[in-house]
Task: structure prediction
Amino acid sequence: MAVNVPGLLAIAFFYLMVLGTGIWAFFKSKRKQRESAATGMDMALLGNRSINCVVGIFTMTATCVGGAFIVGTTEIVYLPSIGLTEAVPLILSLSFTFIFALVMTKPLREGNFVTIVDPFYIKYGKGISSGLSLVSVLVEMLLFPATLMGLGGIMSLVLDFNFSVSVWISAAVVITYTVMGGLYSVAYTDVIQLTLTLVGLCICVPFVLMNPATMDISQTLTNNTFHAPWIGQPDIKRIGIIVDDFLFMGLGTAAFQSFQQRILSASSSTTAKTSCYVASVFVLIFGIPPILLGAAAASTDWNQTTYGSPSPFERGEAALALPIIVNHLTPPFISIVCVACVAAAVMSSGDSILLSAASVFTTNIYKNILRPKASDREGQWVIRVSVVVMGVVGASFTYLKNSIVVFWFLCVELAYIIIFPELICVLFFNIANGYGAVMGLPMGLLLRLLTGDPVLGLEPVLHFPGSTLEDGVYVQYAPVKTISMLTTFVAILLFSYLASVLFNKGVLPEKWDVFKVKAQHSPVPLSPVTEKQDKENETFLSERHNSK
Result:
């Protein structure tokens, strides 16, 4: 099969269009910066907190609807062990993510924070905040290859273009306009990318469903025909897994810097709330086409296609379900449209991932720890270099060529078990301190590792009730991710309270008080915070403003 030249030309035109929009947004941000007298870092990281409602809706939706979402959802529906039964709760949870995030938005916006790690720096100091900064950067970095792999797979199959070359070209385009315009370029290119994604998917779906080789998907929903029923396994004993997936995907995504960065960049709290509510509906709409495409893959007689037998699942190519469908069930010009829509989705989420990772590194590691007196211009250059380095490292992970779902779930799970409970405690519980933060992190993570993970090849050491051996693999039917998250949460509060009592009662000498718990406050009941940011917060913000 020769390289699809018309397809490559169409993709090249799309890339140039996106790049041109990014460059236009760069000049727009410079003009806005001169008008508002904002600093370069303010514009690069949060767009001077001036993103309007319409652009905000697009960029918030794009943060969730990326290449991993589209290609991953198709794979989930196609896999017999997962199917529609678990795909729908995952999409619903991503929709509810916007609602969950609003709970954390109020204190983050009131504190005038730039990243989700800022509250940790205020309350816990440099050591713990630097550790959580690295976790946040790692989480974002694991998500970047998941988005790129979806594009690499579809371009290599549909256009017969080299997987690695397509990945690196796409990464280079994303890196270029993100380096130039920061959040403004990211937000305004999201408008084009998201529009093309929805239009492209809506065009592709009818061609796939009407292909003669594809059976009526309503007939294959619960019937075993060419493939196992795409409804999945609607068994009552899987309720724990489904609830677990709903909570971990929704709450874990809300703890991403890339997600909160969009909310913090809104021009007002009202704009942020409106954008979140509308974006939550948009995510549901974007979830419909991938579900239909996954259902079509499970309803296709592959003997009637150029792909032939056995099926993609039997060949171990379930992760490539979307590109295989596009390549063998649609006309050539339609397949090009689908490639463009996946490329748009990849860019719409990839740029936000790179910018958010660079934000955490520059703000919470470089400026807070390595170079507290760094100038605004120096900070801007650190952001640019960080975007390039993280883009290159993230793109390098695509050589693993693992399932997109593996990368997607792994990064969200890390955010759910580590970042989410830590963030809730630091924002809403006065009793939380450095000792609790240090002890909570390993306890939740260790428990999760002990419960095993078949995707990562980890055998369970700790078996919860209901754990059974199926096809040589232990399946934990208990909500192990949520139990691990709650373990982190409880450990943070428990050890925080213990440390506070021991130092304030004089049981332990004050010279051992590394995190200065005695100086912070006396032990109080485990109740949510009711007061606004304390004086230490004000001092931190004042120092940040003066350094600019």
